[in-house]
Structures are given as structure tokens and as C-alpha cells.
Amino acid sequence: MEVINRNAVEAFVGPDGATIRELAGSRNASARKQSLAEATIPVGGTVTLHYHKITEELYYILSGSGLMTIEGEVKEVGPGDTIIIVPGQRHKIANNGQVPLVLLASCSPPWSAEDHIPAE
Asked: Which of 41, 54, 65, 120 is in Cβ range 3.0-4.6 Å of 95 for a Cys bridge?
């Protein structure tokens, strides 16, 4: 049985200012067909508009609030919301609240830098 505690995973700050913890994936676990990460977006922060050629993503909002943009459509999101992002969709999320926006991002296949294509 493989169990990974969030607090045992080293966090890093991405180029757009979000703090990322890869909770499970091929780089730190035996998962091969998907990855799971926690992203914390600071107040006023925005993840840069981007898309993936092959990766499907699911975002699950744990806390905070944000504005999710997919292909130009904007919706407010908050705790309990799940956002589905299919390959090829240009997307970004911005923290429009007063506290950090924390979400889980599940990717299949696993997230890779090569499949993260800036769109701005």
C-alpha cells in the first residue's frame, strides 16, 4: 500500500506564482497514468492562460474563490466545485477572493512541462 502525506511533499513555486505540491505522480510515486497536485494561488494571483494537447484536467476547489476561464467563458468557482478541462481548451484561473485559493488538479495522462503550452 502506498500512502503519501501532503506534508511530506516538497512544495515549489511555479512561474505564475502558484505554490504546487505534486501529491502523486510518476516523479514521486508509483502512479503512471495520472497525477494529482495541490495548487495554492495567492490573493490576486492568476495562473497563466495555457492549454494541453493531450492532458485532461480536473480541478476541485478546496477553499477560496476564483474566476475560471475556459475558451473565453468565465465562471466564478468556490469550495466544492469541480471544473473539467479537456485537451486543447485554453484555460486559466484567477484568485478573486480575500484568502488563498486552494485546489486539487488531477491530470491524465500525468502533467508534463512538454504538454503545458502558454496561450498568452
From this structure: 41
Residues 30, 75: Cα–Cα separation, whole Å: 35
Per-residue pLDDT tens for 51-60?
A: 999 999 999 9
C-alpha cell at 88: 486543447
pTM of the model: 0.92
Instruction: Give the CA count within 13 Å in the CB-facing half-sphere of 80.
Output: 0
pLDDT digits (tens, 9 = 90+) for 43-91: 999 999 999 999 999 999 999 999 999 999 999 999 999 999 999 999 9
Total domain count for the chain? 1
CA distance 54 to 111: 10
Structural domain containing residue 24: 11-118
Q: Do residues 49 and 85 touch, judged by C-beta distance below 8 A?
A: no
